[in-house]
Amino acid sequence: MRYSHSYCHFLGCWILLAACLQCGAQSSPALTPGDRAQRQVLAYVAKLADLHCAESVVQQKLNKNGRVEVTDQSNFDYLIMMQGDTDGFQMNESRIENVSTKHKALPLLVTNGFSTLMLIFHPYYRDSFRFETGPEQIVNGRQLLSLHFAYLPGTRAPAALALRGREYALELEGTAWLDSTTGDVVSIEAALMRDMSDVGLHSLRVHVEYKLTNLGKEAGEMMLPSLAVIDVETPRQHWRNTHSFTNYRTFSTDSEQEPNVKVHPDVEASGKDIRPEEQIINPPNPSSAPTPREKP
Known about the structure:
Helices cover 6% and strands 45% of the residues. It is mostly beta strands. An eleven-stranded antiparallel sheet has the order 1-4-3-2-14-13-12-11-10-7-6, covered by helices on one side. Strands 5-15-8-9 form a four-stranded mixed sheet, with no helix packed on it. A hairpin with a 2-residue loop joins β3 and β4 (88-97). The chain is globular and about 55 Å long.
């Protein structure tokens, strides 16, 4: 198998309760766009253990002019499992590769987990970002609200660069597009807030799309990842990986979230150069303990 498992942690679950006060009392304040997006994320995380799908990954290496030099494609049965206890919350992203897939020995980058970028709205990552509501826009006949976000340095980071056995927190900013009525996350654009060439990462751009998916009569419909495009540039290399997710199916596996789990703060690390065999993952692996990255 060409992809190792990427371990992610979601440190518990927080449930929003909206109470309707009667008898002349004031009503509850209206939910913000972030609140509504959070409801979608909590429903998504609660359902993850019941889902698996087909994932197609196209890895490309580009030249200085942006033209594709090398391409490789892989197909997987894709599954995310999760478990929670009093020490933390973990996710195991598993890929079982199609045995008929043949590969050449190519210097390509590995990217994992970016389909879950909407976890910036999860309660344990939401406070790590500053959110600002932007203008609305009609896209394909759908009224969408833009919500800009920017990482707050020193807080838990939901994405990391795995380099030589360490993880470097990725400070991301960008825009999430939400359905104006339901608050569902429709797409997210993100990029690095600052150059990380000191660890070999010059730029990172991420585009993720979510699609309303019918899971059958019992499970109903859910907004699920359909596409994730990750574009990475180092001082000497340029890669683009495209992850496509189709054919979602359900299991009978139950999924529970432990509400009283401990928080493990993510920290940054130092390094020099990023090599093709290294990984960029989202969310980061809780098993590693990187040291703070030195400031230039």
